[in-house]
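Hi, here's the filled form for the chain we discussed.

Project: internal
Contact: R.S.
Residues: 600
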Amino acid sequence: MPQYTPPVRDTRFVLEHVVGLDRYANVPGFAAATPDTVDAVLEEGGRFVAEVIFPINQSGDLEGCTRHDDGSVTTPKGFKDAYRRFVESGWGTLSAPEAFGGQGMPHVVSTAFQEYMISSNMAFAMYPGLAHGAIAALVVKGNPEQQAIYLPKMVSGEWGGTMNLTEPQCGTDLGLIRTKAEPQADGSYRITGTKIFISAGEHDLTENIIHLVLAKTPGAPDSSKGISLFVVPKVMVNADGSLGERNAVTCGSIEHKMGIHGNATCVMNYDGATGWLVGEEMKGLAAMFIMMNAARLGVGLQGLAIAETAYQNAVQYAKDRRQGRALTGPAEPNEKADTLFVHADVRRMLMEAKAWTEGLRALCLWGALQVDLEHHAATEEERQLAGDLIGLLTPVIKGVGTDKGYEIATNAQQVYGGHGYIQEWGMEQYVRDARIAMIYEGTNGVQAMDLAGRKLAQNGGRAVQAFAKLVMEEIAAGKQNEATADFAARLEKAASELQGATMWFLANGMKDPNNIGAGAVPYMHLVGLVATGLMWLRMATAAATLKADGQGDAAFLDAKLITARFYAERILPEAGALRRKIEGGAEAVMALSPEMFVAA
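And the returned structure, exactly as it came back:
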């Protein structure tokens, strides 16, 4: 059976020494994030998910969700009770606005808890996770009446929420949507159409589900410019806040999918359902991007979270499983075989997992801090910088986080050998669950194109210049510290490769746009390599300082320094290869005709 222990000590280390949470006490919302409060969130939140949510992960995957003849859906055994306890404990309200019943904590603190919840049960975590995205859109784009009607009960968790984008004929290209919104005399709209792949589209956890739906009004341009956003409740809400009649929206079926079986991924049929415009007509895509940007960071966190759980189990298996002997001679001569830990290739997979999970945890939490600062920092200059950094790195956190999450899950499965392929050990579920995150909220190729094709040139390249400046300043400081000088020098080489690749794009992207398309994914990974390297430089600096001062757990700090060295020696050198791929251009990529791809 799988196991999971929330990495509270590592999260605390990152919040203290990478994020520097204590430096932001004067920023609105951060005053409540005292060390004692944050510790309570990490400790108690970790205990809650480990004891309540994790035990129904594997059973929920095996049972799945069930659609009934009336279109209703029941979640796996234990989900409804666990959700009730989740709501009663207030875990879903951590960073929600106080004006609507939330606790108003910084996003960075709730992100730490979200990682634990996803690690414990990704399918379960998606139910409140989708609601949080809908809440974010209504907070920014909803009118006061909509906010008053929906947000208090969505924030409390009494009502759920979804985002409805995809249709059978369109995924990434939302300009192809066909769902129609016909205006009514009372100011409402009749929504008609079919949406697919709608996570948490129907379930029995909440008494109402608030759908945010993309549709086109009569006469709207037949492109993405004609899209509007509508709020469509599953159950109509009366003037006094009570629930009324069922709206004309139903779950037509549950998708038969590879993983996350505990979450109902639905085909949703809108048969003249009543909805209301959110924001301005034909400005729906901008409103939906509020949800999508929040979701992209959340999906990147999914990659990290699944990787962490898979890694923890692989470590435990490597400690217990005896196979073969160490190449240097028997490590335990009195035993018939040594544990898997003696084998360098097993160590390689585990060290790669450790280096990436701890590095990505730091990057996700630091990214969450930028979200907080973008909205609440004291000066316009600080808000702009934070917005530039998180805007640049959102596709990186999503794309690299989920690519590495899946890679780590499959390597963890590999550590188990044949047992990793067997259901009872749980590793195959993590591989299946991790795979969807590479597709969610735009495939990782789309994320890479957002980065290379859009974010680089945005505002005259202001964001990438700010990121490069930050990296080089911290490298310069790191080179002055004997404990981190070697790491800083290696990171400097990787940053130089990134700079060269960026300049190549600028010189060759206009000549042939396919040069950007062909190099976008390796470029995304190159940025991720450097960004995660920056996090490791900060962690190594903190670990060396604490160790020199005789503070902290010596073994924990030594592990940090050794893992930083591994990242420097074994992962940062990949920067050169990624740059060479980028500079290979698009000619060979685009040369074959479609008919030439199959040689039969």
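Let me know if anything looks off before we file it.
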